[in-house]
Specification:
The structure is a homodimer.
Chain A lengths: L1 E2 L15 H22 L6 E6 L17 E2 L2 E2 H10 L4 E8 L4 H10 L5 E5 L4 H12 L13 E4 L9 H14 L1 E7 L3 E5 L5 E4 L6 E10 H10 L2 H6 L3 H9 L4 E4 L10 H16 L1 E6 L3 H15 L4 E5 L4 H6 L4 E7 L5 H13 L1 H4 L3 E7 L7 H18 L2
Parallel strand pairs in A: 2-5, 2-7, 5-6, 8-12, 13-14, 13-15, 15-16
Antiparallel strand pairs in A: 1-6, 3-4, 7-11, 8-11, 9-10
Helix pairs in contact in A: 1-5, 4-6, 6-8, 12-14
């Protein structure tokens, strides 16, 4: 097993860059975790996640394996890792990648500063990759720096839009039932062909479901299943829930998932993922204004106007900027009267630079200036504007 | 049954606007049709298509039914109709729409000048809509202006990327076997839940296929099946191939389809469709140049340069512009030396205006001028440029 370049599988504490982010996440997660007790009558378990990412992406029709395909210049798998990292109660994330992609993966972890990641070598099939990930978590492995979790989540590297809710649901169900998986209605009717490629029979669509990811298992249940299963299963099987049933005699609890769980499989899915990410980040804006009368008036007018176009508009006087950044808003409109000297804008820029947010998504900062002709000579004003615009342009990725 | 606003279900000949287009399609289709004889040992059958388009699009999460959702400002169903219309051997296209969408559909047919379309009222389920479409084609209907086809294609209004090849394959197979349908590999494993939402069993993914569209049937086979099938089938069934098997005892021939056949189901699919269409139209450009030495040299240089970026580059000296438009290229670069007076550019603009191509897709015309300082005074040149640019801007949608 190899560790990511961030210096170990479980840093003692998150880096300073994302302290704020993690702090907010931890608060949100803590309230989620309390649901373990309230809903399922059980305590919060130790949870790890395994991501098989050894696929070649042959269905995509492009030479790059799909998990490494760029979406807005950032590899798909990095979005998926971010989605899991946001959930603070997932202690370890084990990613199985092929030897030839190991360096690429380490580069991604470093560039996007992913934490809590451990890398293992992928097997030649999906099941073998998952098994390798589970072995890394099992206590019986020599030199293992990871501790065995009570519950393990299995997720796909190419399902970037997984939400904490569904992760919590499968983990809670796995704790109670031993195994659990997300399902979705079938989009197409499923049929069984005969050997001569004619219709043998079709399945009644309403009686079947598509098995999606994430799935979760009591670690011992799924590890025992993998240890006992046949080479045929490891070579040709596709379904972890099936292994838990066949070898550990556990009937998985099935949990209805959201449409977001879809797997990036074809090239068109990359287009869809890009559009979804673009829509999400273009649908929120933060208006930052000084507390002075002029800016506040224009700020409120702007808010009213933007409400008809955008989903999320926040207006802040600069007091709670840190919180805005934590909430992952990437678009800012800063308003200043010339004489107020861009204090808030400068503060925002400093915070953005520190947070390195622009590595993750395109960050847009629009600076709006109101010239106050009465107090300062015009030439002096323009000079200031020029100086500050220079700074602002630098901060936009 | 209602006819579209184009003045009847089968106009005597295509309108003057698309005569060139239809001519080229007819030539291509004629060669495809000859495959009926060569490959299947049978003559070209009379073919019609039925499109159920009565769905509410509830899975899309938007108020507009998905078949009417705009992609690049044009409704999805219009792309699908265009895909079928391009195939000249499909004689009639029957679209089943709900009463409340009848006027919308007529408006679409008129605006995008669709031909060979007849409208029927949709039923409350997909099967009932298809049955209504088939009834309109059956000879036993009173006042029917359509003639009964030998083979009927059933396709979805929300699968816009269907190609002639797969239509030909299912029609040929239906002629031989009585029924045929396109299939695709399963993306997810299919499972059967028990009544308490636990896993009962999972299907071995390799032994099953997703049943997609288009499907094709000998008309009598599928019409008989629909006439005999139960109310339960009409209410809850999803699979035409199943009805042909159950009621007409025909085992459909299954034909491997391309990834393009996917069904626009969720909002993300609209994004994907838009990106695919954008990519297609941005990947082809036609460089139009005069036959004079200067333009020709620059034209060839531009071709070399664009080859690294685009899939389809054509360079024409203006002699075969009509053919370029027929081949549905939407991007043009026109090069003129000032003194050549924009003759080719003007010819192209006239043709584009006549063809109404800009209703279907965004059309881009870039006009490049080489000023010949030696022969004409500068002021006079600029005046000419201004005048012509005005015309060009008008032609771009």
């Amino acid at each position: 097993m190899e560790s990511g370049p961030s210096g170990g599988s479980r840093p003692a504490e998150p880096g300073p860059r994302l302290r704020g982010l993690r702090g907010a996440d931890a608060a949100a997660s803590a309230s989620s975790l309390s649901r373990f007790g309230a809903e399922a009558g059980c305590r919060a378990p130790a949870v790890a996640a395994v991501l098989p990412a050894g696929g070649s992406g042959e269905r995509m029709g492009v030479p790059t394996p799909k998990q490494f395909c760029p979406i807005l210049e950032r590899p798909l798998i990095s979005y998926t890792l971010q989605a899991l990292e946001r959930v603070s109660w997932i202690k370890d994330i084990i990613v199985a990648v092929t030897g030839e992609n190991m360096e690429t993966m380490k580069g991604i972890i470093q560039r996007y500063q992913h934490k809590r990641i451990s890398l293992v070598e992928a097997g030649v099939t999906r099941h073998r990759s998952i098994f390798n990930g589970l072995k890394a978590l099992a206590e019986d492995q020599p030199n293992c720096r990871l501790s065995k979790p009570e519950v393990v989540i299995i997720h796909d590297a190419v399902r970037p839009f997984v939400e904490e809710d569904v992760l919590l649901n499968v983990v809670t169900a796995a704790q109670e039932h031993g195994a659990s998986g997300a399902i979705r209605p079938l989009v197409s009717t499923v049929i069984s062909p005969s050997v001569d490629s004619c219709l043998d029979h079709s399945l009644e669509r309403a009686r079947y479901r598509a098995s999606e990811m994430p799935q979760a298992f009591l670690f011992d249940v799924i590890y025992e299943a993998y240890q006992q299963c046949s080479d045929y299963d490891l070579e040709f099987g596709t379904e972890c829930l099936h292994l838990a049933l066949k070898y550990s005699h556990i009937k998985a609890k099935l949990v209805e998932g959201s449409p977001d769980l879809w797997k990036v499989t074809y090239k068109r899915d990359l287009y869809a993922a890009e559009s979804i990410i673009k829509e999400r980040i273009s649908q929120q804006v933060c208006v930052v204004m000084d507390t002075k009368e002029d800016e506040e008036h224009v700020g409120r007018c702007l808010e009213e106007m933007l409400k008809t176009e955008l989903n999320h508009i926040k207006v802040t006087s600069g007091q709670d900027l840190q919180q805005i950044i934590v909430e992952q808003c990437y678009n800012f409109v800063c308003m200043n009267v010339m004489t107020s000297d861009f204090e808030e804008t400068q503060r925002l820029l400093n915070m953005l630079e520190e947070s390195n947010l622009s590595i993750l998504y395109p960050v847009v900062v629009i600076s709006v200036h109101f010239l106050d002709y009465e107090s300062v000579p015009f030439g002096q004003k323009m000079e200031k504007v020029g100086k500050n615009v220079g700074k602002i342009v630098c901060s936009v990725d």
